[in-house]
Amino acid sequence: MNRSVLLTRAARLGVVSASLGALVALAGCDTLNDWLAPDRVNYKTAETAPNLAVPSDLSTADISQRYAAPPALNTLGGTAARTPTAAGNLTLGVPNTQDPLGMHVESDGDRRWLVIDGRTPDQVWPQLQEFWTDNGFTIKTNSPQTGIMSTDWAENRANIPNDWFRNSVGKLFDFAYSSGTRDMFRTQVDRTVDGSTDLSVTHSAMEEVLTGQDKTSSRWETRPRNPALEAAILQKMMQKFGLTEDQAKQLVANARPAGAKVAVEQNGGTSTLDLAEPFDRAWLRVGLALDRTNFTVDNRDREKGIYYVHYSDSMADLKKDGLFGKFFSSNTPKPTRQFLVNVKPKADKVTQVNVVDSNGQPDSSSDAQRIVSLLHAQLN
C-alpha cells in the first residue's frame, strides 16, 4: 500500500482517538448523556403496543362522521394523477402531439433541463421530494415558494474500496474512512407561460486533496460540475415521473436547443446583458447560469424579476457539516453582501439583465460588474 495513504489513514485514526477523548470529557453533559442514552427509541425496530382494553362499565363512544379526521392531503394541492400514453406509460406530464410522453428535454450548450407538459410546480414538487429522499439524499433547502430545492453535501460511498481498513476500523467509525469526495445537487423549478414546468439540476462537488511533502495533510478543493452527472440525474427523474430508462435516455439524447445570443451593453461604467428571447426563457437561463457560478441564490421574486444572490463558500459549508462542527459551531452565519440580479423585458422578445442596488439603480461596483461578466460567460 502507498506510504502516503497509510500516513493519511493513520492521521484519521488520530482524529478518531481525539474524538473519543472529547466525547469522554463531555460525558458529564446532560445533553450528550441524553444523546448517548441506551433507552432512546429506535423507530426502525419499535413494535406496536397491544390495544388498550376498555372497562366493561364504560359505554363505547358514538363514532360518527363528524368525529372522523379529514383525509390527508398531499403538500401543495397533491400530486397530479398520471396520464396514460400511447406507449403504455403512466406519465406525470400531459401527453400531446409534440410530446407524446408528456415531457421533453431542452439544452443550452452543456446545460439541460426537463420540461413537464401541462403540470405546475406545485404538482411536481411532492414527486421531486420523494425522488431525492428515495435516493438517500438529505434535503437541505425545501422552498416551493422560490422553486429551489437543494440537497446537503453527500459522500460518494461508491468510491470507497472494500479493503481491510474499511472492514476493521470502518465498522466502528464509518466517518473515519472517507471517499474524499462530496457532492451536492440543486434543483430549480419554474412555471412557464403555458402552464408547464421547467426543472433543472445543478451539480456541485468538492474533493479532498493530499498536501505536504509527505502527503500527511489534506485540503478540500472545488471540483468542476459534471454535466454528464446532471444529465444522468434528469434521466433518473424522468423514470420517477413514469418513463422507462430507454425513453429517458432518448429524450436526453434528442434535447432541443434553446439558447439565444447575448449582447453586452456599456452605459456609464456599468454593463448590462441583452438576451434575444422572451422574459420567461431568459429568467430560467439566468437562474441556471447563477447556479453554475460561485454565487448562491438566496431568494427570487419572479414578478419583480429579481434574483437575490451572495458569494458561496463551499469550503465553509463542508467545515460546518463536520462532526465537531455540528457540536460546537455557532449557528450565526457570517454576514455576506447580497446582490440583486435584475431580469426584465426590454423589447419584444428581448430581455435585459443587470445588477442593481436596493433602490433599483444599476450597481457600478466591481463585484457587481464581475457578476455580469460571469453571467455573460455562462450564457454564451
Provide tags for this entry.
380 residues, alpha+beta, TATA-Binding Protein, 2 domains, 9-stranded mixed β-sheet, 6-stranded antiparallel β-sheet, 10 helices, 27% strand, globular, disordered N terminus
Could you characterize what this model shows?
This protein has helices at 3-25, 30-36, 121-134, 164-172, 227-240, 245-253, 279-291, 314-320, 323-328, 366-379, and strands spanning 83-84, 90-91, 103-108, 111-116, 139-143, 148-151, 154-155, 181-191, 197-211, 217-223, 256-257, 262-267, 270-275, 295-301, 306-311, 338-347, 350-356. 31% of the residues lie in helices and 27% in strands. It folds into two domains: 1-12 and 69-258, no CATH class; 260-380, TATA-Binding Protein (2-Layer Sandwich). It is an alpha+beta fold and 380 residues long. It is built from ten helices and 17 strands. Residues 1-27 form the signal peptide.
Topology:
Elements (H helix, E strand, L loop, with lengths): L2 H23 L4 H7 L46 E2 L5 E2 L11 E6 L2 E6 L4 H14 L4 E5 L4 E4 L2 E2 L8 H9 L8 E11 L5 E15 L5 E7 L3 H14 L4 H9 L2 E2 L4 E6 L2 E6 L3 H13 L3 E7 L4 E6 L2 H7 L2 H6 L9 E10 L2 E7 L9 H14 L1
Parallel strand pairs: 3-11
Antiparallel strand pairs: 1-2, 3-4, 4-9, 5-6, 6-8, 7-8, 8-9, 9-10, 12-13, 13-17, 14-15, 15-16, 16-17
Helix pairs in contact: 5-6, 7-10
